Each structure stands twice: as structure tokens, then as C-alpha cells.
Amino acid sequence: MKKEEQDFIEKWIDNNPNLLFAGISLILITYGILMIIGAFRDWDWLYKPDPQWTGNPARKGYPRKVSYNYGRRIGRIYGFFCGLCFFIPLGLFLGYLVYLPRLK
Predict the structure, then answer these.
(1) Alpha-carbon torsion 65, 79, 85, 97, what sign?
(2) I need a surface site. Which of 35, 55, 64, 84 has the fewest CB within 10 A?
């Protein structure tokens, strides 16, 4: 990455911190909703057991890894509660922090 591009990105983040956090908040909420919908609809791309990730300890929490170790049903339950109790509340909290200064 060129120095001018990096400076532009740094300036944009400094000038628009709320927009950055709003984007991250929207991504987290969307991922949480997709995990919940995928748990009910049994989506393969999200809950198919994946033996490729067995050697990578950094990816132990993903639903595909849980599905491989404990079965698809447990992976779907894990994905539902992870989306409901972690991603959606975290996204809502970040969204609240973005709009908190506007409420004052």
C-alpha cells in the first residue's frame, strides 16, 4: 500500500470514527442474524462439519469446527446461542455507542 493511500485511510478514520463503528456494528448484527437463520434452516456453508480446521487451534470456536467435533446438531445450537448472545448484543452495543453522542 502506498503512503498516500495509507494517509488517506488514516485521515478518513480520524474524521469519521462513528461511520467506522456503525459499519462494524452492522457487520456484527448481520453475522449474528445469519448464524441464527442458518441454525434453523441448517445451512451447509455455515454448519457443515469441516475436518480441515482440526489442526488450527485458533479456529476452535467456529460452528463448523464445533460441528466436526460434537456433531451438526450441537454446532447449530452453538451457532444459535453465539449469534443471539454474542454477535447481536455486541453489534447493538457498538451501534448504541455510535448514536449516544447524538442523543445528548
Answers:
(1) positive
(2) 55
